Amino acid sequence: MHFLTAPSYGYYRDEFYILACGRHLDWGYVDHAPLVGLIARITSITLGTSLYALRFVTGIAAALKAVLTALLAREFGGNRFAIIFAAASTLLVPIFLALDNQFSLNTWEPLFWMGTLLALIVSLRKQQPRLLLWAGLAAGLGIENKHSALFFLIALAAALLLSPQRRLFREPYLYGAALIAGLLALPNFVWQAAHDFPTLRFLQNVDRLHKNVELPPLKFLLAQLMMLSPFNAVLWIPGLYFLLRRRQFRFLGLTYILLTVMLMAMHGKDYYLAPLYPLLFAAGAVFWSTFRHRLWLGAFLILAAIPLLPIVLPVLPPAQIAPYMQRLGIAPTRTETAQQGPLPQLFGDQFGWPETAAAVARVYNSLPPAEQAHAAIYTGSYGDAGSLEHYGPALNLPRVLSAHNTYWYWGQGATAQTLILVNSERLIREGQCTSVTEGPEVGHPLSMAEDRFRIRVCHGLKTPLPELWPTLKHWS
């Protein structure tokens, strides 16, 4: 599905940034862990950077998630129906379809979480402690993929302490697994320490600016129902019951409860809990596998998922998305306070990038040759910067600079006398331009409101850019 629908709309904002991280491989980035940059680099070298290439990779990740869910169902004692039902239902969860249609950290997160749990469960069932080392490997890769894996591991450790499986803490292989995870995460920690912990500063800024939508506990739980589809509640809620009722699996149910409480207390985004749901889908499939009418339930959940596909996959003409959602009685969800647009951000952030790049090229080509030689593009966000870097070579654009998140590091030492300002007015407000030329307005009718702006040209910086750069840092 992801491969076939790949070219329907366009690149998602964050995909440009991830591809840029792949071009600037490092042991850390301001706003995320380093593994996804490596995956982007490998993908770029082997498959390219087309939408087909990116969606092929995310489609493979989605398929692997279904496989892991099926393996979990088997470990829970599921029969053939349970195994197939677990895999099929996971493939059709709206939040998974949405996240797996983007080349991002979220694509890989469930694989590492479920890999950790699967290795742990198999180790306990077979009473082979050395298999815990595989859990350590998956956990370490999970941390290197996304730092939120730390909260998952904290919840898992606390759940083990509260369950009969606390005996694992007397097992040397558990500490071996922790050592493996720690060694895998160590390079990023060293990078963070060497750069004065930029990710921590980034998170503090996000919290201070109230960038994310902060849901109270009841709305957070309601959001779980909606992002998974209310119909799927008949699968994952019995799955949680199944885990809590069985002594050998109770720590898994406790892990879900503890992580839910942690995320609500920290005002985490609702989808931060999504990587743990394959566990509950697997358990729910086993729960229903002995019921007489299980086939009818399976068919119902699969059929109920079909009407939801157009709101998470690019299968409709864009102009029909909003009316279709209205007919279903579904309102677009927001995870950030500034999200405004005619489409949900999932789709809105896929429009307007080629048009903006073409407009920037026209502005650059209109400059006198002598000025072009000392010009650069300065953007207000990593999305704008990444998109212009992506389309820039074909348009012969100059160097793209931004002080947003990790782009700030990449721009250190850059020089320019003329800056084409893309979605950024800070230099104008601070009086840093000797003169300013007004350029064209850009913005696709379906893009987000923040991506509709006027391009301007800042002529003659009053302060040399290397001196000005430290003051431009923008981490949020």
- Shape descriptor reads globular
Structural class comes to alpha/beta
Strand order within the widest beta sheet = 2-1-3-5-4
Tally the beta strands: 5
Overall pLDDT level: 92
Low-pLDDT stretches are: none
- β content, as a range? 5-15%
Distance between the first and last residues' Cα: 33 Å
Largest pleated sheet: 5 strands, mixed
User: How helix-rich are the residues, as a percent range?
Assistant: 55-70%
Order of helices and strands: HHHHHHHHHHHHHHHHHHHEHEHEHEEH
Write down the domain tally: 2
* DSSP summary: helix tally: 23
Verbal overview:
With 476 residues, the protein is an alpha/beta fold. It has 2 domains: 299 residues, no CATH class; 120 residues, no CATH class. It is built from 23 helices and 5 strands. A 5-stranded mixed sheet has the order 2-1-3-5-4. Strand 1, helix 20 and strand 2 form a beta-alpha-beta unit. The protein is globular and about 75 Å long. The two termini are 33 Å apart.
Keywords:
2 domains, 476 residues, 5 strands, alpha/beta, globular, single chain
